Amino acid sequence: MSDWSAGYVSDIEYLPGFYREQGPAHLTLSCLINGIAPPSAANGFDYCELGCGHGTTVALFAAANPQGRFHAVDFHPAHIARARDAAEAAGLTNIAFHEASFAEMAEGNGPDLPEFDFVTLHGVYSWVSPMNRGAIARFLAKKLKPGGIVYVSYNAMPGWAPMMPLQRLLYEYSGLVHQRSDVQVKAGLDFAEQLYKAGAKILGDEAMFGKLRGETKAKNNTEQSVYLAHEYLNGSWQPLYHVDVARELGEAKLTYAGSATLFENYPDLSLTPDQRQALDSIGVPSLRETFKDYCVGRPFRRDVFVRGARRISVGRRDAMLKDMAMAMIIPRADARTTIQVPLGEATLEARHYEPIFDALAEGPRRIGDLMELPEIRRAGGTLSAVEIAGMLTGSSQAIPVPNPPETVTPLPSVLAHNRAAANELATSEGRKSTALAASVGGAGLHVSTMEALLYDGLGEGVPETLDALVAHAMRRLDAPENADEASRKAIADSMGWCMANSLPVWRKLGMI
């Protein structure tokens, strides 16, 4: 490791990724669900991502929110160089990328920045040293507006406790391998598995080793090694208890507002009745939230903090939620009333949610209008704005739209970003997904390689026919002209599905 990295893995770049929980609309919804006033965005907003990596997430939000002013910071010069090139290729004019350390930012030696309504950190806080966490808190004290939101994700205790012996082994073993970090972590994993098979069961089980080796469809083996190196080989890596994070950020006058993993804000979905009763006796919020983790066992937290949290009345909260819209992000045929929640499986009332799915399949609708659907009024029962917003967003079936437009018109910034992102994935080797921005909701969606090929083809002016788009995809994939019928059929089947299912959703979201 070089000195400038401060023990952080720097010899290989971090993987690009999109994390929807960092979105301004999603964070606004998290606050409202918990009865906290979000920042006003009437005159636009200022947004900063600390530790932005390649800038994939923040660039998408900049494209989808042209009224916002975005800044992104990373200490790694290669990350910033890539992020600037990508932003230039997408024609983004409302974002700036800065190479600076947390210490430089805290001491005012970095770039000249405004005060922010939103500051987000994903995959940073439990991977850096206590000194750097202190610098982050000092930066927030200086640069987060009163009422501003902070999103911070981190590996959490005690849920991470079972993995700590393996992490320590991988970190210490890496010092014996004088090669790049991704090679080091792979060698360490080989040694750990050898010990496991020799009887060191404290290191895990077969399923865990299979997952760590990337035996999933999410990442190829090269990407998995890079991910593991950044996850496990940082010198200051430390999973944290919520109470410690709350105390550290309390130095910047931050108060915990809720979770960006929305289902975790609903006690009935996270805790058993006995657990809720036991925790009700804990009067200190940060301790109650920490002790909750002993019941839930979550190894990863997505916390939302506010600098000067302002409680709002139930009536005011409900009025704000009713004025918010929801936009469906899946095909109507894929909508489901059985959902996965922290406690396991839950079932939504079909008499309420089937009519909501039908309405949203036509386009974005205000939550207040959804509550007044004739089918729902006839069905009777109770259905709150808090439930509709949380259940649809938490189950990844819809996204919140704080300022719903009368008509959906694709934003020029969204179209430019998506053309660049789709082209990059369509012509890349190894990557399996990217994310495209939406003009509705200021957010975005993950897309597969075949979906990117569809978007790329339509952007290039290819006729919207299956044969033409399959031919375009095969050219992009460098498939031979005499490819066997099975290969051609596989591409055609996948492309046909994307045309029938993804394309209509994109159009309703103003993505294309």
Q: What is the class of the largest domain in the CATH system?
A: Alpha Beta
User: What is the overall number of helices?
Assistant: 22
Which architecture of the largest domain does the CATH hierarchy give at level 2?
A: 3-Layer(aba) Sandwich
Main pleated sheet: 7 strands, mixed
Residue share in β-strands = 15-25%
Order of strands side by side in the largest beta sheet? 3-2-1-4-5-7-6
Q: What is the CATH topology descriptor of the largest domain?
A: Rossmann fold
In CATH, the homologous superfamily of the largest domain goes by the name: Vaccinia Virus protein VP39
Helix content: 40-55%
Ends distance: 44 Å
Residue windows where pLDDT falls under 50 for at least 5 positions = none
Rg over CA atoms: 23 Å
- The average pLDDT is 91
How many domains, in number, for the residues?
4
Query: Class by helix and strand content?
Result: alpha/beta
Would you count the extended β strands for me?
Answer: 14
Describe the 3D structure.
With 512 residues, the protein is α/β, with parallel strands linked by helices. It has four domains: 20-158 and 239-311, Vaccinia Virus protein VP39 (Rossmann fold, 3-Layer(aba) Sandwich); 161-233, no CATH class; 324-401, no CATH class; 412-509, no CATH class. Helix content is 46%, strand content 15%. The protein has 22 helices and 14 strands. The chain has helices spanning 24-33, 56-64, 77-89, 102-106, 130-143, 164-174, 181-197, 206-212, 221-232, 242-250, 267-270, 273-279, 285-296, 314-323, 350-360, 367-371, 374-379, 385-394, 412-426, 449-459, 466-476, 485-508, and strands spanning 45-50, 68-74, 95-99, 116-121, 144-155, 254-259, 300-307, 325-328, 338-341, 344-347, 365-366, 398-401, 433-437, 444-448. It has a seven-stranded mixed sheet with strand order 3-2-1-4-5-7-6, sandwiched between helices. Helix 2 packs antiparallel against helix 19 (412-426) and helix 7 crosses helix 9. The longest helix is centred in the last third of the chain and has 24 residues, at 485-508. The chain is globular.
